């Protein structure tokens, strides 16, 4: 019962904040700067749930140039971890279905989210190419979950290569971020949701200068292995 109440509150909070903030964001116009509003709306949630956030390696995000953040994806709770570390001028890449989630999708669009159609390869490639140009032009950071779907297993799923193609096309670094497992306090399978501690480890950047599309498979696996090793230690 407590699990369902807490999850219901999570969804109600997100919808309520979207309703509250969308008119303000709309007046400002669609902009990555609206991510600050979204972040301010989501950060208080950790206090309601009694979740303590520990961040290690935040100095690795102190990069003036554009970069791509890749993060493991476990549950809807990831949005809290994401907002804990998201840097200035950073937008997530989300599946296109999010855009059609009513007022929440509208709030995400106003905040500059980049939407990608995972079922149409050609469309996805076009979005990646366009984003690579925008990153350079507007000094934008982009956050992607390369597993592509939520995964609460002990190991990470194989990574999709879109994030790595983007980094190579834009010739910008990749910053891996690993969120510790939630098993101690959260499990959708066991319907458990109690107070707990979440650790976020930010790993050193991985350069892509001089790499070409043929290097993407090896780059993808190198980053995934570094993140998997960090996750194993945090487990």
TrEMBL record:
Residues in Phospholipid/glycerol acyltransferase domain copies: 67-182
GO molecular function: 1-acylglycerol-3-phosphate O-acyltransferase activity
Lineage of origin: Eukaryota, Metazoa, Chordata, Craniata, Vertebrata
UniProt key word Transferase: yes
InterPro entries noted in UniProt: AGP_acyltrans, Plipid/glycerol_acylTrfase
Name recorded for this polypeptide: 1-acyl-sn-glycerol-3-phosphate acyltransferase
Catalytic activity: 1-hexadecanoyl-sn-glycero-3-phosphate + (9Z)-octadecenoyl-CoA = 1-hexadecanoyl-2-(9Z-octadecenoyl)-sn-glycero-3-phosphate + CoA; a 1-acyl-sn-glycero-3-phosphate + an acyl-CoA = a 1,2-diacyl-sn-glycero-3-phosphate + CoA; 1-(6Z,9Z,12Z-octadecatrienoyl)-sn-glycero-3-phosphate + (9Z)-octadecenoyl-CoA = (6Z,9Z,12Z)-octadecatrienoyl-2-(9Z)-octadecenoyl-sn-glycero-3-phosphate + CoA; 1-(9Z-octadecenoyl)-sn-glycero-3-phosphate + hexadecanoyl-CoA = 1-(9Z)-octadecenoyl-2-hexadecanoyl-sn-glycero-3-phosphate + CoA
Cellular component annotations (GO), alphabetically ordered: endoplasmic reticulum; membrane
Transmembrane segments: 12-29, 98-116
Annotated keywords: Acyltransferase, Lipid biosynthesis, Lipid metabolism, Membrane, Phospholipid biosynthesis, Phospholipid metabolism, Transferase, Transmembrane, Transmembrane helix
Pathway membership, UniProt: Phospholipid metabolism; CDP-diacylglycerol biosynthesis; CDP-diacylglycerol from sn-glycerol 3-phosphate: step 2/3
Organism: Pterocles gutturalis (yellow-throated sandgrouse)
EC number: 2.3.1.51
Gene Ontology biological process terms from the UniProt entry: phosphatidic acid biosynthetic process
Function: Converts 1-acyl-sn-glycerol-3-phosphate (lysophosphatidic acid or LPA) into 1,2-diacyl-sn-glycerol-3-phosphate (phosphatidic acid or PA) by incorporating an acyl moiety at the sn-2 position of the glycerol backbone.
NCBIfam families: AGP_acyltrn
Domain text: The HXXXXD motif is essential for acyltransferase activity and may constitute the binding site for the phosphate moiety of the glycerol-3-phosphate.
Family the entry assigns: Belongs to the 1-acyl-sn-glycerol-3-phosphate acyltransferase family.
Stored SMART domains: PlsC
Broad EC category: transferase
Keyword Lipid biosynthesis recorded: yes
Pfam families (UniProt xref): Acyltransferase (PF01553)
């Amino acid at each position: 019962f407590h699990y369902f109440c807490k999850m219901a509150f999570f969804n109600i909070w997100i919808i309520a904040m979207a309703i509250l903030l969308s008119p303000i964001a709309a007046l400002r116009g669609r902009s990555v700067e609206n991510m600050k509003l979204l972040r301010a709306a989501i950060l208080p949630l950790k206090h309601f749930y009694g979740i303590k956030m520990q961040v290690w390696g935040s100095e690795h995000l102190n990069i003036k140039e554009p970069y791509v953040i890749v993060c493991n994806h476990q549950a809807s709770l990831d949005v809290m971890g994401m907002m804990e570390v998201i840097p200035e001028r950073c937008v997530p890449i989300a599946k296109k279905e999010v855009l059609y989630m009513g007022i929440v999708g509208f709030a995400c669009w106003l905040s500059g989210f980049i939407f990608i159609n995972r079922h149409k390869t050609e469309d996805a490639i076009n979005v990646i190419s366009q984003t690579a140009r925008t990153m350079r032009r507007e000094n934008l950071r982009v956050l992607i979950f390369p597993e592509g779907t939520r995964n609460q297993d002990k190991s990470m799923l194989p990574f999709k290569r879109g994030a790595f193609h983007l980094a190579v096309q834009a010739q910008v670094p990749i910053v891996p971020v690993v969120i510790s497992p939630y098993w101690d306090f959260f499990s959708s399978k066991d319907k458990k949701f109690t107070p707990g501690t979440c650790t976020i480890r930010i790993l050193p950047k991985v350069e892509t200068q001089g790499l070409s599309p043929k290097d993407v498979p090896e780059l993808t696996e190198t980053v995934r292995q570094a993140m998997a090793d960090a996750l194993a230690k945090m487990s």
